[in-house]
Amino acid sequence: MTPQLAASTTAFLGLLSPVVAILLGWVIAGENLTPMQIAGIVIVIVIVIVLSSISAAIISRHAKPSCCGDADLCSQQIHI
Description:
Blueprint: H1 7-13, H2 17-27, H3 35-62, H4 71-75
């Protein structure tokens, strides 16, 4: 079974497309980056990291315990 990313994580990764395009233009085409573009790249990357970690924390709190042979553990549900 291959690991899968949550939909919320992939939604945040979509925000990186413009950042990748700008960086490729800088690396491959030799375009100049303005301070405003650099600031925008940093802001987007920070937001993606923060929101991804918040999303991962929320998902892990809602995760149901895996069944490990203990019937009591398998019947428990996590309530917030």
